[in-house]
Amino acid sequence: DIQMTQSPSSVSASVGDRVTITCRASQAIGNWLAWYQQKPGKAPKFLIHGASTLQEGVPSRFRGSGSGTEFTLTISSLQPEDFATYYCQQANSFPLTFGPGTKVEIK
Amino acid sequence: QVQLVQSGAELKKPGSSVKVSCTASGAPFSVYAINWVRQAPGQGLEWVGGIHPKFGTPNHAQKFQGRVTITADTSTSTSYMELSSLRSDDAAIYYCVRLTGGHYFDYWGQGTLVTVSS
Question: Which of A34, A93, B33, B116 could lock B91 by a disulfide, CB 3.0 to 4.6 Å apart?
Answer without folding.
Answer: B116
